[in-house]
Design goal:
Radius of gyration: 13 Å
Order of helices and strands: HH
Shape: extended
Distance between the termini: 19 Å
Number of strands: 0
Helix content: 40-55%
Structural class: mainly alpha
């Protein structure tokens, strides 16, 4: 979610893509009742 906040700050005027995607993520997180993962220092593999 932090990356969406960064993208919003860097976006061109009038481009709301980052905001719309952030909102979509928030709705999915709330709908699925997800909680933040614990940071154990490991990185997840890219698929």
């Amino acid at each position: 979610m932090e990356w969406y906040e960064r993208a919003e700050a860097l976006r061109p005027p009038g481009n709301v893509d980052a905001v719309l995607r952030w909102n979509s993520c928030v709705r999915a997180i709330e709908r699925e009742r997800l909680s933040p993962a614990t940071d154990d220092g490991r990185e997840l593999p890219l698929e």
